[in-house]
Design a protein that fits this description.
mainly alpha; 98 residues; single chain; two-stranded parallel sheet; globular; 2 strands
């Protein structure tokens, strides 16, 4: 629930359009080639996801900036602890002031 939380947080900020998808086989929404090609920035939650992204879509990622937030997979959607952990990291990555 990390990715939908991040996407929904950033979607509220002016000037950003977001999407989210998963990289594992059990994801509700699997990442597609179209999404990778569309993205100006790809944010993943941990290094394992970055490896999967490169393994599955390395030929498409190319020059697209990819950032690892370092957020563990132990939260529910929009859990206050997740939002508190994620918010400063997203602000820093996207250059959004407090």
């Amino acid at each position: 629930m990390r990715s939908p939380t991040a996407a929904d947080i950033v979607a509220e900020w002016p000037g950003f359009i977001t999407d989210f998808a998963g990289l594992s086989r059990d994801a509700d929404e699997m990442l597609s080639s179209e999404q990778v090609e569309w993205a100006d920035l790809i944010v993943v939650m941990d290094r394992r996801q970055k490896k999967r992204l490169n393994d599955q879509f390395g030929h498409l990622v190319g020059n697209t900036k990819t950032v690892v937030l370092g957020i563990p997979d132990r939260f529910e959607y929009m859990a206050p602890a997740l939002v508190d952990l994620m918010m400063p990291k997203l602000r820093q990555v996207l250059g959004v002031p407090d």
